[in-house]
Amino acid sequence: MHEIRHKNHTHHNCQNSCCGLCCTKIENFGVTIGNEEILRDVNLHIHCGELTAIIGPNGAGKTTLIKALLGQVPHTGKINFMQENEVSLKSPVMGYVPQSLSLDPTSPTSVLDLFLSSSSTWPVWLVKPRKEVEKIRERLSAVNAEHLLHRKLGALSGGELQRVLLALALKPVPDILLLDEPVSGIDQNGLELFYKTVSALRNAYDLSIILVSHDMDMVRKYADRVVLLNKTVILSGPPDKVLESDSYYEVFSLKWQKRKASEGGEG
To answer: pTM of the prediction?
Structure first.
């Protein structure tokens, strides 16, 4: 991976206090749509400079939580974005990578066209300015995707497209990066590369990253903190603590697996 330019502060261990640029405090949070209560009494502290994974069964409210953080759905309670020294941050820069995009495989639009159309008023059908192209190449190199610069969007694999979208979400460098099941349906190699890339970006930029995921092996390997959500916070803590808890097995209806594992251990 090419060198990534850092923010003007140092990444620290933030287990007990906030020391990066931005942390998120969610208090007494709830979302009700129509007559359906989707989230209730959610209290979370998303620590600065950490990768926090949100896990839970289907219908747990994970995507709704992401949308509420983006300001796309109304909610009760408070979301406070804090800078260093507990100073409130009114308008944090949010980066967002969705689950997937539906693309026309016959479209002539290239990765370069996508970046040019999103980052400037320069008409993409004119001659591309060389400096702008090199900047885009640098952004792609940060996510191991510089070789995709001239590739048609419709010809990208799922993993390649998600890395391109990740690069797009880093301009400007966000205070908080939100990833909503960004690698759904991607093969194992693409999955590992995506998580490695996100982890490297977190370290380089001291980002707060909130990742919704079903990939428990990757969560265990790369997350700093795991939140087990099922309409409210069931458990929050280090990956091993959450993924080996009785609550995890109960929420995912896997108690038989835990029994089998413990019986095997006794033998």
So the answer is: 0.82
